[in-house]
Each structure stands twice: as C-alpha cells, then as structure tokens.
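Appendix B. One record, verbatim.
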Amino acid sequence: MTATDSKYAYEICPPRADAMIYSLRAFGYDLAMSIADLIDNSIYASAKNIYINYSWNDGEPWIRIMDDGDGMSCTRLKEAMRLGSQSPLEERHPDDLGRFGLGLKTASFSQCQLLTVQSKELNAETTTRCWDLDHVRETKEWELRTIPPDYALSHLEPLNKMAHGTIVLWQKLDKVIGHVTGDNPETIFYEKFLNVKKYLEMVFHRYLSGSSSSILIKVGEADCEPWDPFLLSNHFSQELSSERYKDGRISVIPYVLPHVSKRTPEEHEIGSGTKGWNAHQGFYVYRNKRMIVSGGYLDFDLKAEEHYKLARIMVDITNDMDHEWNIDVRKAVAQPPDRLRNEMLRIAKATRNKAVQVYRARTGRVRRTERRPSTIDIWIRRKKGEKIYYHINPNNLVIKRLIEEVNPGKSWVNKLFHVIESTVPHRLIIIDNAETEDCHVDLPVDQNMPPEALMELCIEFYNKSISEGRSHSESVDYVTSIEPFDSHPAYRANLDELIGENQ
C-alpha cells in the first residue's frame, strides 16, 4: 500500500459554520418561492391543510407555516435540520418534491435569522429544533438549538391542539423587512402576502383542484384558489392532440388558449396570471404536479412575442428526472435533456403556429387553407427592402362597391387612401395592444354593431352569391370571409335568418 492510498493521505476539512450558513442565504429565493419550498415538505408529509399565518407584530414580524401532515420524530427532525440531509443522487420516493436536502434550510435562511421547527407524530410528544444564525455567527459552530426561545412559544401553541403536524416558524425576518421601505412598512409587509397567495395558487394549482386528493392552503384568512393556466374550463381552449408526446417518464401536451373574443373578462384576467399574457406563453414544467416553470421557452432560441401568447405547453416529468432536467435548488429553473430537445422544439413551433392563427382570427371569420382572393382583404401587406407597408386594397369587394356608389374622381380616392395609409397610428396600436389585449378591436357586440347600410350591403353580396348558384351555407361562408363582414357575428346571424327564403 502506498502512502497516497492510506487513511493518512486525507484529513477532515469542514466548512466554517458562520461563512457557510450565511452563504446559503444568497440562493436567490423571494418570499413566495421560499414558502412554496416549505409547502413541498408539507405535501410530501401527506398534509391536507396548510396554513400560512403572519404578523407585523409592532416591527418584530413573524411568519408561520403549519400543516396537519404526518409529523416527525426527534431523530427525523434533527436530520431534516441538517444541511444536505439527503443526496440528490439517492433514490427517493416517487412523491418526494425535494431533491438536495436543502430546501427547508435555504428557503428559511433566505428570509430569516431564526428558524424554529416543531413537529409531532401521532400519539407522540412534540419535538423542537432551532437554527439561530446569530448564535452560529458568534460561536462558528454547527450548534442546533433544542429548546425554542421564550418569544417563540406562543406561536407554537396551535400544534398542541392537533393530533399530528408540523410548524415552521420564521423570526428575525431581516431579509423580509429589509426590503420593506416607505412611510408605512406595516402595510407593505401585509401586501407582500397578496403576491404570495397568487404565487401559491399558480405553483400548486393541480393540488388545489377539486379532486378527492386536493389540499387546502390558507394565506391568512383567505383560501388559495387553483389557477387555470390553460383555461380548460373554456371549451374554446384547444388541446393539440396530434402534437402530444408521451413516454413512461414525461408527458407533453400543447394547448392553444381561446381568442380574446371567446373569453370573458374574468377569463382574460385569469389567463394573464402573475406575469401577464406575454410572459406566460411557452412551457409549463411540472414535477409530480408541482409547477417548476410557468412560461417561457426554456433555453430554446424562441422569443416570447405578442402574437404567440396563446401558446402554452404542459410538460410533466417524474422526480427521478431532476438531474436530467437540471432543476435547481429553488425549483425555479429547468432545461430539457438532449434526447428530448428536437421533439420539444418541434412541438413548441407547431403550437406557436396554431396560436398565431387563433390570435389573428376575427369573430365570425371562416378560415380557409387555400390562397385568399385579392378581393377579400381590405389591407394589403407589401415589403420593400427591409420596410413593410400596408395599403388599402381598392379591389376589396366592399371598398370597390362603396366607391362605385359615391362615384368620386380617381384622384380624390387616391388622396383619401394616401391620407389614411400614411397616418395609421401603428406604434400606438402596438403599445396599447400590449398593455390591453386587442383594445382596439373585438369590442363587445352591443358596442360595435355594424351600421344598417353595411348590413344591407352584406345582404346584397349574399343575394348575388345565391344568384350565382351557391347554396345558402356556401354563400354565408363566402360573404363572411370578406372584410369587414368577418369582423362581427351579426353579419353571419343576419344572413342565417335568410335561409328559409333560399331553401
């Protein structure tokens, strides 16, 4: 045996407790993300009810996460409080939402300097452990406190009335109140939990849904309601079943959300989520039903664009794929493995292509796959070099008919078209539309009724189509494909009333 092979070739070199524990405070959690990490533990402990309570407490705020899960023994609690209590390489239970054995500690340290955990198993005594970062800094030792401080006791009392469960208590909230500035820090502190509630409703929406296995999460006195990112309650949401991908460990289901005209104001608000419509397009990655990624195109070279914002793709993976997907400690980042990249990119592009078709559709328009006749559209798109221009189409059947009716001189028509084309407020339309989706079109039908003269002209076109030998349905489809007869359902409804006259 050589010297390098012997036990004397190694020595123990533990990290400095104070330096290490304070480094762990900089993992990049925010308040909502930290609380979500603790809820993962509650769900794995089979909790059915999870309560997030908090108080400003005259400038000494505290936050408590309490559940009615299985609880922990003294030995298990001590192990749970250990830094790196589980290797990410170890095989875990399929329902385990953790990975690194760090979540409880890093999530808590990112918000507070005093972490107290009290737990109780069924028919057992409560057990308590505390990490006091001030103590660790002073002693430079990994000394875990076994008795809570006196000012924590009242916050731990609710567990005494429960058969089993766990309380995680955060005090000395230097990171939370450090970001609370202004004339009324108490109000700002409480307002933070409005965002916490929305975030939890997003991340755990599949656990909050109304099935028999659903859980209750309360933030203060308010119940969390599940967010529906795919608007599945709206029958105009489309699942692109032909683009699905599934094997034993991953499922990819693409959706295209409804056009704005097919959504209620409430659904429009729901669909915008916490980040807005544009930011929420793209992939939604779930591990064991727990959302990891809530939009965006992962690390693919695809940009989030206004006209793709109806594209949302559900991706379900099992918890043994964490390493493959490079899921981080915070459970906020994921990258697809090489073996899936081509397939996922194909699905993303196909979903975006379908989404842009729905986005550009108008109420009542009948879409055809063949090339559209030059007499259909009012605006013509032309490209000159790198510039794109939009011109009024003088061959559009309605424009042409109106000009014939007025019978102005040709130069007068050219001047009118030029004035309209050169003054379209395109930049303002883009800005307004980004802030308030389709604010300049698709107004409520009762506020945007077509004038009677245009309705009469629509019927005139319909009668002409009938005289040319088309059936009623063919004539309606044809006429309502012509702009502007494709812009309001009243045109089609009016024409459908004529069916009896032409059967």
